[in-house]
Sequence to fold (55 residues):
Amino acid sequence: MTTLTAKSLSASRFVPAVFAAALGIALITLTGHVQAAALHDAAHDVRHATGFPCH
Fold:
């Protein structure tokens, strides 16, 4: 019974770490293939949508 609890605890820590790593790699890979102007425009739009002043 204790072994199952330890395994499930280990898995519960491993899954979020793998998900975060996959998300980070995907984000870096996708933004690496986009032109800088497009990234700037997207960031600018997000700032306006969330109410932050930009200029």
Summary: Residues 2-32 form the longest helix (31 residues). The chain has two helices and no strands. The radius of gyration is 19 Å. Helices lie at 2-32, 36-50.
